[in-house]
Amino acid sequence: MQLDRFDRQLLNLVQQDSSLAAERLAEQVALSPSAIQRRLRRLREQGVIVRDAAVLDPAQIGRPNFFIVSLEVERERPELLAQLRAWLNEQEHIQQAFYVTGEVDFVLIVTAPHMEAFEALMSRLLQENANVKRYTTNVALGLVKRGLNIPVPLDEAE
């Protein structure tokens, strides 16, 4: 999909705050509110904008703990990886899962209200996924930065 400068500006703005009304976006992008709405609809229909979400304060909702988990699998057969990916996608405590290069196969970002909930999830992971060889965990001591924004250069050449 070809993105012009207006699309790129919009994408940067809605990543910062997807609740902005078309009128407010129009003030910053120099297009009419109706043109903004058409562009946003097109960007959603074409899969550039995958979804809109609210960013919550984990401590305010009882989910203050973050765990970074590295998984190593026994065999990298496609059907076994697909099964593990499906299982990871179903787990609400797993916020992000990356298939990576290097010494481990997956890196997970997990949130849980307390250590017992995290341990229960990891126990189920091993019980329900025989192909998982081992995992290691890093406990986040503090949150320095959290986000999903992808910088969108205003010009294609950037």
Automatic annotation (TrEMBL):
Keywords: DNA-binding, Transcription, Transcription regulation. GO terms for cellular component: cytosol. PROSITE patterns: HTH_ASNC_2 (PS50956). One of its GO terms (biological process) is response to amino acid. The keyword Nucleotide-binding does not apply. Residues 3-64 form the HTH asnC-type domain. GO terms for molecular function: sequence-specific DNA binding. This is AsnC family transcriptional regulator.
